[in-house]
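Query structure, 295 tokens:
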């Protein structure tokens, strides 16, 4: 029996860790463990090397609400509430009580599926300084919850869109809809991003790694809080093909897995831009842990 040296064992472990990370970022939305609030509070979930960590550094004890790894932290518009999301689809909403280290869970829900995107519904007008002591009050952005303060929109990996909203001091309700997939096929969403346009509608971009050729699908999501209705309409498809033609967007390495996508709103030109990051293994025959990446 041949003994394996500690160095060889360490090398194998490192190689496995790189492979695991590469697989996760290609087929699952990368974790956002750090969130910076407008009030200059930073929330993050530590990574425990031996086990999944369910703490948040703000002194929040989340063990009773999250039994699995926290993958997303999102502050609301004013920094008065924080959402923590785990890999099994559980969401907890936290609000500060009297001091920065006193937090209370106002709501928790289990959506029963991996959450690929989360967005708060705005409920206040944000003030911005113009000059000196002069402030300008901004307009409301997007749908508002007429019943209370807290409301948010989520998209799950199986294509379900939920809006959960506060309809009383302690009561929450939710409405839902489904994204129409191409050819009616239900696939698994690995990456998504959502942005609020100037008309108060959400624009959603999603990527399903099982589709071939590679494609990014765009949807317009209109939330009517007065009628408690969600309308999801496909508006565009971008095929990431290697062949240049008049109807498709092309990238040099269309076969490479997508590891990240991001939407940016250009308010001056009133256009939305899509950023795509791809990566695949370098075929250099020397080191399996070298990757090529394109934006």
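Result returned for the query:
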């Amino acid at each position: 029996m041949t003994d394996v040296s500690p160095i060889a064992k360490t090398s194998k472990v490192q190689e496995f860790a790189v492979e695991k990370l590469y697989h996760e970022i290609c087929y699952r939305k990368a974790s956002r463990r750090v969130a910076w609030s407008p009030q200059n509070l930073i929330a993050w979930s530590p990574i425990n090397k031996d086990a999944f960590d369910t703490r948040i550094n703000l002194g929040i004890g989340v063990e009773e609400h999250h039994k699995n790894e926290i993958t997303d932290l999102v502050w609301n518009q004013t920094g008065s509430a924080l959402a923590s999301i785990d890999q099994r689809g559980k969401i907890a909403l936290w609000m500060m009580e009297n001091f920065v280290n006193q937090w209370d869970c106002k709501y928790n829900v289990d959506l029963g599926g991996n959450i690929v995107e989360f967005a708060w519904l705005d409920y206040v007008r944000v003030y911005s300084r113009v000059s000196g002591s002069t402030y300008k009050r901004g307009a409301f952005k997007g749908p508002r919850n007429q019943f209370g303060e807290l409301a948010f929109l989520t998209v799950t990996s199986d294509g379900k869109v939920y809006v959960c909203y506060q309809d009383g001091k302690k009561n929450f309700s939710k409405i839902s809809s489904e994204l129409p997939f191409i050819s009616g096929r239900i696939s698994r969403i690995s990456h998504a991003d959502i942005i609020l346009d100037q008309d108060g509608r959400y624009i959603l971009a999603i990527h399903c790694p099982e589709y071939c050729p590679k494609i990014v699908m765009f949807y317009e999501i209109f939330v009517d809080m007065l009628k408690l209705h969600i309308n999801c309409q496909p508006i565009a498809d971008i095929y990431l093909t290697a062949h240049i033609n008049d109807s498709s967007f092309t990238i040099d390495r269309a076969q490479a897995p997508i590891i990240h996508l991001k939407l940016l709103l250009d308010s001056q030109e009133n256009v939305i831009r899509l950023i795509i990051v791809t990566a695949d293994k370098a075929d250099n025959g020397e080191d399996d842990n070298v990757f090529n990446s394109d934006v």
